[in-house]
Structures are given as C-alpha cells and as structure tokens.
Amino acid sequence: MYPCGVEVRVLSPAPKFMNSLIDKIYDQLKADEDKARLKAAYNFAIKAHKGQFRQSGDKYSSHPIAVAARLWQLYQDLDLTIAGLLHDTIEDCEEVAIENIYKKFGPVAGFLVDSVTKRRGYFYQHEEIIEDHIERLLWAGQKDVRVILLKLADREHNIGTVDHVPEHKQVRMAFETQAIYEPLRRALNFGKVSSVKTAAKRYHSLLANYHNADPKALKEKIFGESFKNFKTDLFNEVYTKSHNVTWEITDRKLFDSLCRDESFAKNTQLSSLWTDGKNFKAHFRFLGAKIIEGARLEVASYYQ
C-alpha cells in the first residue's frame, strides 16, 4: 500500500497464446525469429481447425497442440514441433495447400507435414510417387527421421484417446499400432528424452538390420516381426466390446511370411483362403475377438 492509500498489485504477464503448453515452449526459445515461427504455426493451426471437433467433443486443435508439446518435450526441435502443430492441416482442411506450408514454414517442416499426410501419392518437392501410406512414411523417414517421430507422437496421442472413437475404428487402430507403430517405437526408443540425431542413428540401424530393404519390403518385414513381440493388452480393451472382426490380406508374400511366424499363427484363426493363380485373398481374425454390429474391417484399409 502506497502512502497515498493506493494499492498496487503486480500482475502476471498476459499469456502469449491461449494455451499453456505452447506458452512453455515459447518461453524456452531464445531467438525472436524462432518465437515468431512458433507463434505463426500455432495461429495457422488454430485458424485451419476452427470449427472442427474431436469425437470426444474437444476442439480439434487440442490434438496438434498435444502432439507438438510432446515432441518438444522429447526432442526440443523447433521444425519438428512446428510440424506437430501443422500435421493435420492438409489432410483435414480443404482450403490449406501443401505449398503454403512449405512457403510459410520452410522446407523441413513442409516435408514433415507432406510425408505424414494421407491420400497424397506424391511429394511436393520430390519426384517419388508412393501411393501406399506406410511405404511413403518409411521412405520419407530415411530422408528425415523426424517424419517417423511425428507419426509416432500423433499415434501415441490418438491411442490415448481411443475410447472416444467408434468401436470398429478402435480395433483398426489397435491392429495397425501393433503391426507397424509399436515396432518403430521400440526401435527408435520413442518416449525417452533424446535427440533427433540419436533417433536417426537408431532408424538407420533398423534399416541396416533389414539390409536396407525398399519401403515395400521393409513394411512387410516390420509387419511380420511385430507378432514376435505380440502384446495382447493392446487389443484387450477394444476386443471386450467387439466380435467377429475379420481382416483381409491380398499380398501372398506377406501372408506366407506371417504364417511362418508362430506368434501370428497362435493368435489368429484363418477364415477363408482364395486364389485364382494370379490374385490372392485371405481372411483371418484374432482369437478372442468379439463382434461389432454389422462392421467388417480389412487389413487393406490399414494400408491406405
């Protein structure tokens, strides 16, 4: 209290954003240019996802914010964090073009967002045309491991909120997480504070173990290997709510590879097998699965 009787209160600085997670990242940045880039990415994501909501009822922007915060916590890499904020803007916002991401946020963040965007067979600044989403992801990861780290953070948050999505999507997410993302998470030691450089070394070590296989062969090898470390707990939660979940494989080599794996054979039941000598189709289900009303899932949908 001043002598004149006027009470003076020291107020806390106003938040730079309407989100404490992004505020914390902003405060750790030193360069004004970096702060400006983070602020621009945050505002871009908020505007792009305006009016969109998650199945939980939360604003959709809560998802990219959580992904970005997680990536910063683990790697403190600004381009990766910015890509976390922007990773769904192309896929979920028709008015946003990939060239705008490259132009506004640079080639690194642009490439990361480009690489994890589904339904894009081509890359904006690369000649490669890869229609399969997983093969595209694995190819891009060889160029920049941050592509894989971004996708793992995205999947980690989505799995953490899986209760809010329809039951048939819960089963699909659990399966594809087990088949591809869980092996990648283990290989890169994702979830432990590290550096992008260390993650890159671990990814290239994984590639070397598979004799630097092309993306298609690498996908098949990872898919098969995943069942050697089969985690039934990843499926239990959704399986208690669902039944008669049928999966389809149309790749004969992949199917033959899986059948040679004892873990896969022990945990699945073959429903049907068909071939005309040229085309191939096999249906199977995981043992213990229960039914989803009128729903039928296909492994093929996982590769899209």
UniProtKB/TrEMBL annotation:
InterPro entries assigned: HD/PDEase_dom (IPR003607)
Coiled-coil stretches: none
Gene3D superfamilies named in the record: Hypothetical protein af1432
Residue ranges of domain HD/PDEase in the record: 56-168
Name of the protein described by the UniProt record: HD/PDEase domain-containing protein
Organism: Candidatus Komeilibacteria bacterium CG10_big_fil_rev_8_21_14_0_10_41_13
